[in-house]
Structure formats: structure tokens, C-alpha cells
Amino acid sequence: MICTLYPLLPSAIDCAWKSESFSCRRWHTEKLKGRSRWGFESRDGSTDHANMQAKFQGLVRAANLGARPIEDPFLEKDLADRGYEYLVEHLCLNQCVHAQELKSRIIEIYRKCYERSPTNPESVITDFVAVYPQLSFESGWLRELVETQAGNRDFRRNGPRNRLFRAIAAGFRRVANPAARVHRSIRDARLEAARYSREAIEKDLNEWEKSLERRTGASEWIREQAIEKVKQLTASDSRLKCVETRLTQFLCKAQLYNATNLILSKLYGVPVRELETRRRP
Predict the structure, then answer these.
(1) Nearest one of 98, 176, 165 to 133, comparing CA atoms
(2) Is residue 208 a part of any domain in this protein?
(3) What is the pLDDT of residues 20-39, one digit of tens each?
């Protein structure tokens, strides 16, 4: 086996909201006792060991989210729907974010999407309530909508009053369904395990690449070496057999980054796009 699926790790989402400030490096880890550890550190430098596994090492520069305009709210909503960590990595990689600033930005993202949605804006409310139920109670724009429609004497079945409250109810029904939370926890654990294993796989492929000496090697010989390398990989883990052709193509073209992502995707059962570098401004 190239790597072994890492044990499920505790979710850091809940403890992140409770922390006054936390790092935006969602997958920043420390290798303690052979395990990858979550690290969220509070302003006073203390760490809640009940929720957080280890402290961050070094100084992390703070990001000012308030000074950054929301240029593409639908892009940021797409990231926020998948989890706040995706949004944070997109906005400020390797920086520290204050929790209140992040909360305010998420609330504003969904407000803009609701106002600009060309069709079915209520679906934005459903997503907001389902993914961030705690923020729905702090959202000024959603509270104003509820106050306005609560006094609306519109008895139409599909009127704005009923559409709003159906959207909110649908969001809370999604929150009450444990399947989504279980799926997200498993996904996060698999992603963490994949990222923890990336270094070893990249090192192995880089050493193989250096041994080729492409400047002097013929293309046909390089292809033969790539096929041989892929055979070694599939022999160590049969799950890679279904991507032998693509792996060979990546190795022939020296596309080691794509090859690494493909290997990790098959070993840990996560989409390749989840492993790729996020789009950043």
C-alpha cells in the first residue's frame, strides 16, 4: 500500500467559531506521534485541548477581510456552501482571520446572492440556513425579511410569505438530517488524510523524475519508464489500476502535480478538484 487511510479526525468547524481568531490554513498540520493534528490558536496564545489538537508554529499574519470587496458573490457562495474553510483558503491563504470578520462576510455574501439571484432567490436562503444555521440568527437582512413577511396577510400558496418560510424550513430540515454532517465529516477526514500523504507521493514521483534525465532520453524510452513506474504503483495498490492510462500520460508529460492528485483521489475516494489548488485572487 502506498498509503493507509488516516483515522477520522475531529471536525474543527465548531471550535473555529468559538475561537476569537483562527488560522485560514484549514489543512495546516503538525506531525505529532505520527498523526496529523488540527491547529486553531486563540489570540491570547492559549489552546483549548478539548477541541483543538495542537498550536500553530510561528507567526501568522492577520488578514483584513473588511477591506476586501465581494467582487463575485456567487463564486464565494459556492465555496462557502462547501464549508467556510474553502472560502477562507480562497480569500487569504496562509493568513489569520478574525472570526467576526468571517461571519460578517459570509452573511453579506448570501445577502448579495439573494438580491442578485435571477431566479428562485429563496434557494439562497435555504442554503444559508442549512450550511450556517447559527449565522441565520445573526443575519440582519434575513431578520428584516422575516419581520416584513410575518406581517404580510398574503394567503396565496406560492406568495412571497409562504416561499420565504418554506425556504427557511427547508434549510432547517437539512440541518436536522444527520446524513449531510456525517458525509462532510468523512469527506474532511479523507481530504486531511490525502493532504497528509501528498508529501510522500510527491517525493517518490520527483525522485523518479530526476532519474530519467529527460534531456538525453528518447521519448519512447521515457514512455517505457513511465509504464514501468505505473506498474509499480498499481502493484502496491490495486485501486490505481483503473487510472493506469491517465497516470502513464501524466508521467510521460512530467505532469507530476496532476499525477499526484489522481493517485490521492483514487486512494482516498475524494474528487480531484477537491485536491487541486483553489482559485485565488
Answers:
(1) 176
(2) yes
(3) 333 333 333 333 233 333 33
